[in-house]
Write a structure and sequence with these properties.
The complex is a heterodimer of chains A (466) and B (357). Chain A has 13 helices and twelve strands. Chain A has helices at 2-44, 70-78, 98-106, 146-156, 175-185, 218-240, 256-261, 272-287, 309-329, 341-356, 358-374, 380-407, 415-449, and strands at 57-63, 85-92, 108-110, 124-130, 136-141, 161-165, 170-171, 189-198, 203-205, 208-211, 251-255, 292-303. The termini of chain A are far apart. In chain B, 72% of the residues lie in helices and 0% in strands. Chain B contains 19 helices and no strands. In chain B, helix 1 (8-62) crosses helix 2 and helix 5 (121-134) packs parallel to helix 7 (152-165). Chain B is extended, with a radius of gyration of 31 Å. Chain B starts with 7 loop residues before the first helix and ends in a 7-residue tail after the last helix. Classes of the chains: A alpha/beta (466), B mainly alpha (357). Chains A and B meet through helix 1, helix 12 and helix 13 of A and helix 1, helix 2, helix 5, helix 7 and helix 9 of B.
């Protein structure tokens, strides 16, 4: 018994050290890439000259009950700086006035367009063309979920690349140009994901980001530090070893043929964005094809973070379920050629152990230590040492993300802003991260129970919108 | 004694790791503060100078001798050249030359040459771009070496600079690389070709096309659109009868322009590869007449959506075919897909967008 308990103590301790070492390694991997990105920015920032060889892009905007914001979102997309693109809004059987809002704002009219059903999806009702904007179409379809809506968008899209966008995302005017760059330079590129940042506190006018500020709401501040970690070293680090397993559903560009050949988005999944990426790795690795999935670290897509605890809780539960689904549905990645390359033998096990089942181990660790302390089996010193370890490693990771931000994009230039972010990085480790871990554990258990998925509804405050 | 009290070693290990992590975090925080302080100081300095630089650059586009450029310190040079490059990118002709003269008059051209060999990639890229705009002949050997042997980003920046310094000579040097280096994006090369204009690029493109290299021919064919169409067409159309390569056939079909090409276009309409059939449909829409009706109606029943779409588009543009005949064709079409596609093409033709004031 004593040996078992001691073994468990070491297990939890080593788990904490290992997961944090993993993140620190990703951090170290991200540094050279970010520095290189910063070095070439003087070239990228020169006025763009388009040659006509830029691949045209179909922007797919799935919308479900987005009546309040859909028109302004589309207007913002219409202003993107890119030579050739079309916008395809897919109204996924909204129950509110989403379609009416679009009809009114863009003078939509039904059009006898022939729909090419390359991927199975729910039937469409009508295809509308805009009389005011030649590059805008709206597809009204029977409700089938976000993945299904995106599949309809892919079927209806006309260009070789498509960009999946959340209807409530705010894109910078050069967002498309920047996220497409990997496709210009790399013929093997099949996907490219952009960095998502939090818009709460920022000034947004007419669908465009005018001024970057920090939010006053603590929950939103906590998520800013989280996003910095997730994108600046999480995804950037994995990108350096060609093992990106997630491209955010809020903003990602894909080569259409590759996605169609892989079967499109998987309907009835929660994490359709991650599932597609893991599946693309699995399918292409199994076929032995050359491909690359890129990640663009520039902060080009902005989204509203929940400021309400219950909404945030639901979001995190959904994300965790999506992650578990995506990983388990693509287990065969490990059987692909060379064990699936770095996505297979490196990223997949890491995600499986630390991201999928991690919450279970972490919560068990906390509960175990607290229980042993409560029954007097662990001394106060040992308990405090355990907590200090968890806090200090978490704090180090957050600070290293702030360091990467300082080295690269420097979006919060004032000392007061950096002070606020550092305070948030401290507060984050005193309860918030643990709370998120518990939510993720709920997500994991719900996935294990096989609960039904649906559109992730989130009440938007949009207080930053003018 | 507790059942499983952690050993002293275990506690010591946890505390050591925690303290180590905190120490590193504190070092990072100090580094962030220092970097921020340094950046603030540097940005402030640059901000104070930037207005004067802008004024000088604006003046220089008129008369570089009259432009008053304040002395530029070592730490400011990169920021100044970034601004100068922005100006240079948007200017052409004499104004661009005068802008270059401003640097020579102030001895900055020598500093650009030195900067090109610095360790910092950022500085090198800024200097390489500036050297290109300055048409700096002294940089030729260095840039040529970099363009042919450097990594993706630097080599392309160097190639771009060479093409600005002496376009024809650069095209001779870089020709094989332009077609073969897939890490040099066509879009970026295209933007340079566009800048150089057809009078400069047509000759080298023709030379490259005539060599018909096995590797990279599709890239040259695509770049050919920046040359004089008639000279390119004479070569590319000739390939239609002698090539089975998909990219070559597609390119050839893009250049067909009269009745003499109709047999090739009709033949391509039966090709196994759908992209060739699509190119054939487009070509037939451009040069065809009533005689091509049967081929296009056949393409209208193609299994691939895009071939049907372009066949329908071609039908709506076919010489000598009246709108009411198209309506009749649609009504009589036995294939539902063909009829639907024709309806779409006709609707697109009749679609009247609203002009926004």
């Amino acid at each position: 018994m004593k040996t078992l308990v001691l073994g468990l103590e070491w297990f939890f301790l080593l788990y904490f050290v290992l997961i944090n070492l993993g993140y620190i390694t990703l951090n170290l991997l991200a540094i050279p890439s970010l520095r290189r990105k910063t070095a070439i920015r003087p070239l990228e920032d020169l006025p763009p000259v388009y040659s006509g060889f830029e691949p045209p892009v179909s922007l797919l905007v799935p919308a479900y009950n987005e009546e309040a914001t859909i028109a302004s979102s589309v207007r913002s997309l219409l202003q993107l700086d890119y030579p050739e693109f079309e916008i395809v809004v897919i109204n996924d059987g909204s129950k509110d006035g989403t379609l009416e809002a679009l009809k009114q704002a863009f003078q939509l009219e039904g059009f006898p367009e022939v729909y090419w059903r390359r991927i199975n999806a729910q039937p469409i009702r009508t295809i509308y063309h805009s009389r005011t904007h030649a590059n805008l179409r709206v597809i009204d379809k029977v409700n089938g979920g976000k993945a299904d809506a995106l599949n309809v968008g892919i079927n209806a899209s006309r260009y070789p690349l498509f960009c999946a966008i959340d209807a409530d995302s705010i894109l910078q005017r050069d967002a498309l140009r920047r996220v497409i760059e990997p496709f210009l330079d790399d013929p093997t590129a099949i996907a490219s994901g952009g960095t998502v940042r939090i818009a709460n506190g920022c000034t947004v006018s007419g669908g465009n980001l005018e001024k970057v500020e920090l939010p006053r709401n603590l929950l939103a501040m906590l998520q800013i530090v989280e996003y910095l970690r997730a994108f600046l070293f999480g995804r950037m680090g994995w990108a350096t070893v060609d093992a990106v397993l997630i491209i955010s559903g809020a903003f990602g560009v894909f080569r259409k043929d590759a996605v169609v050949e892989a079967g499109g988005y998987k309907a009835n999944t929660i994490g359709e964005d991650m599932e597609l990426i893991v599946r693309l790795h699995r399918v292409l690795r199994t076929r032995g094809e050359r491909y690359k999935i890129h990640f663009v670290p520039d902060p080009i897509c902005w989204t509203e973070a929940p400021e309400d605890l219950s909404i945030l809780k639901n979001q995190r539960i959904r994300w965790q379920r999506g992650l578990c689904e995506s990983l388990h549905q693509n287990r065969d990645l490990l059987k692909a050629k060379n064990m699936g390359g770095t996505p297979g033998f490196l990223a997949y096990p890491f995600f499986m152990v630390f991201e999928c089942y991690g919450p279970l181990i972490e919560v068990a660790g906390y509960v175990f230590m607290a229980f042993m302390f409560a029954i007097g089996q662990v001394s106060g010193a040992a308990f405090l040492a355990f907590l200090a370890l968890a806090f200090s490693l978490g704090f180090l990771l957050s600070v290293s993300a702030l360091m990467l931000e300082e080295l690269s994009f420097h979006l919060y230039p004032r000392f007061s802003q950096m002070g606020a972010l550092i305070c948030t990085a401290i507060v984050e480790n005193l309860g918030y991260r643990q709370l998120v871990t518990v939510w993720r554990l709920i997500g994991l258990t719900r996935w294990l129970r096989g609960a039904k998925s649906s559109w992730g509804a989130m009440k938007r405050k949009g207080s930053w919108q003018k | 004694m507790a059942l499983a009290s952690p050993s002293e070693n275990e506690i010591a290990f946890a505390i050591d790791v925690a303290l180590g992590a905190l120490a590193i975090a504190l070092v990072l925080l100090v580094a962030i503060a220092a970097m921020r302080h340094l950046r603030r100081w540097r940005d402030g300095r640059i901000a104070r100078s930037e207005n004067a630089w802008r004024n000088a650059l604006n003046e220089a586009t008129e008369d570089p001798h009259a432009a008053r450029l304040p002395p530029i310190g070592r730490l400011e040079l990169a920021a100044f050249l970034v601004l100068w490059n922005h100006f240079a990118e948007s200017l052409k002709g004499d104004a661009s030359e005068r802008l270059g003269m401003l640097l020579s008059l102030n001895g900055i051209d020598h500093r650009v040459m030195q900067m090109m060999r610095r360790h910092s990639l950022r500085h090198r890229l800024i200097a390489i771009t500036a050297a290109g705009h300055l048409r700096e002949q002294r940089a030729w050997t260095y840039l040529e070496n970099l363009a042919l042997h450097g990594g993706s980003i630097e080599s392309f920046a160097a190639a771009r600079a060479l093409l600005r310094i002496e376009p024809r000579r650069a095209l001779d040097v870089l020709g094989p690389a332009l077609s073969a280096r897939e890490d040099w994006s066509l879009a970026r090369i295209g933007s340079i070709f566009q800048e150089l204009g057809p009078q400069v690029v047509t000759g080298p493109i023709v030379t490259m096309l005539l060599k018909r290299p096995k590797r990279g021919l599709n890239r040259i064919v695509k770049l050919a659109r920046f040359g004089h169409r008639d000279r390119i067409a004479a070569i590319v159309r000739g390939w239609l009868g002698s090539s089975d390569e998909m990219e070559v056939l597609i390119a050839g079909l893009d250049y067909v322009e009269d009745d003499s090409d109709l047999p090739w276009a009709k033949g391509a309409a039966k090709h196994a590869e759908w992209r060739v059939r699509m190119a054939a449909a487009k070509a037939l829409g451009r040069i065809g007449g009533r005689g091509e009706l049967a081929v296009l109606l056949e393409l209208l029943r193609d299994p691939i959506w895009w071939v049907r779409y372009h066949a329908a588009q071609a039908l709506t543009h076919l010489h000598g075919l009246e709108p009411h005949e198209l309506d009749t064709l649609r009504e009589n079409a036995r294939d539902a897909f063909a009829a639907d596609m024709l309806s779409q093409a006709l609707a697109e033709r009749r679609w009247q967008p609203v002009r926004i004031a």
